[in-house]
Write a structure and sequence with these properties.
Blueprint lengths: L14 H27 L21 H11 L3 H7 L4 H34 L8 H23 L10 H30 L10 H22 L27 H7 L1 H28 L3 H23 L4 H29 L1
Helix pairs in contact: 1-4, 1-6, 1-11, 4-5, 5-6, 6-7, 6-11, 7-9, 9-10, 9-11, 10-11
């Protein structure tokens, strides 16, 4: 044979399968956010003091292994200043949540990379989407690096992690979630109508995103600073509309980015701006015939507002606070789906 012939598999786009895959990964991301909330509320995030992407998959399997991990934890300020005298059993409890959080993060990466390789091999990815899907997979790796960067901020001179790094870690996860939902909706639309025009973000959409981003950022800072604990009354904060105790002595910028009283105040009242923006979006969708998206968005907004108030008045009950964070992630996913539908109706 003088000339080799190579059989090339013809492109066979499978948008419906791709959509189902990305929806499943989005659900997994919401699960990671939930466990991340538990990790934060149980003060478990600094229990693993090293980042071992491969060998860290397995927890300690022997008593000697557990003692070695515990000794590493004993060297950091959180143990020395807050948890001195903690038992090994209690350490295993906080270790579990941080370990599970990291395992689920790795699982998200696998859930993206392995099917992506399979769909690419089958030439099932529609034109123009390969780079986007690869970017989503790369974002998971970046998220892992940000997570370790966040943990590292609490290992030397602090008893907790930087709330700035925590906010970047959370917001990156929520951006990944929104991108997964948007792309899944693209594929679902393509499966129904291959000739359909891809939705685009409108001016209204960008306004909603900006307002919601501010609320999510404030919420992450409140979580990172444990600012939810500074008041357990609503709508007043310790019998005042504007709480006493705000420290303005280091300037307005420091107060707006670091003061727990002020950030709690801003988060609880900016939520109304976010709710109004999202309910107006729901109203617009309803008028354009997207009643399912409008109803779902309205219900999730109402649930999130209710859970936020309950988190405050229960003194940050752990499971209510976790539900508040999970519903926040669901709200991001629902908003992404709603904005995708808005882009379709505006096209």
């Amino acid at each position: 044979m003088t000339q080799a012939s190579v059989a090339v598999r013809p492109p066979t786009p499978r948008p419906a399968a791709l959509s189902r895959w990305l929806r499943a990964v989005a659900l997994l991301v919401i699960m990671v956010v939930a466990v991340g909330g538990i990790t934060r509320l149980t003060e478990s995030g600094l229990s693993i003091t090293e980042w071992k992407p491969v060998s860290g998959v397995l927890p300690p399997l022997t008593e000697a292994g557990w003692q070695a991990e515990f000794e590493k934890y004993k060297q950091i300020p959180e143990y020395k200043e807050i948890n001195a005298g903690m038992s090994l059993a209690a350490f295993k409890g906080i270790f579990f949540w941080e370990w599970l959080h990291r395992i689920l993060g790795r699982l998200v990466g696998i859930a993206l990379l392995v099917p992506l390789a399979f769909f690419a091999w089958r030439r099932a990815i529609p034109a123009g989407y390969g780079a986007r899907l690869l970017g989503l997979a790369a974002l998971v790796g970046l998220q892992g690096a940000i997570g370790w960067w966040m943990v590292a901020s609490g290992l030397v001179d602090r008893t907790d992690v930087s709330h700035f790094r925590l906010s970047l870690h959370l917001l990156t996860a929520l951006f990944l979630l929104a991108a997964l939902v948007w792309t899944a909706r693209d594929f679902a639309l393509m499966a129904r109508d291959p000739a359909a025009v891809r939705p685009r973000l409108t001016g209204v959409a960008w306004a909603v995103i900006a307002i919601l981003f501010v609320q999510l950022l404030l919420g992450a800072w409140v979580a990172g600073l444990n600012a939810g604990y500074v008041a357990s009354t609503w709508p007043s904060m310790n019998d005042h509309f504007v709480p006493e105790g705000i420290d303005w002595t280091r300037g307005a910028w420091f107060a707006f980015t670091n003061d727990p009283f002020l950030l709690h105040f801003l988060h609880r009242w900016w939520s109304w701006a976010a709710a109004i923006a999202l309910l107006l979006l729901a109203r617009t969708l309803g008028r354009r015939g997207a009643r399912t998206e409008a109803l779902l968005l309205t219900l999730v907004v109402a649930a999130q507002m209710t859970l936020g108030i309950l988190t405050v008045v229960t003194g940050v009950s752990m499971w209510i606070a976790v539900l508040h964070q999970v519903t926040g992630a669901i709200l991001v996913a629902t908003t992404a789906a709603s904005l995708h539908r808005l882009g379709r109706t505006a096209a």
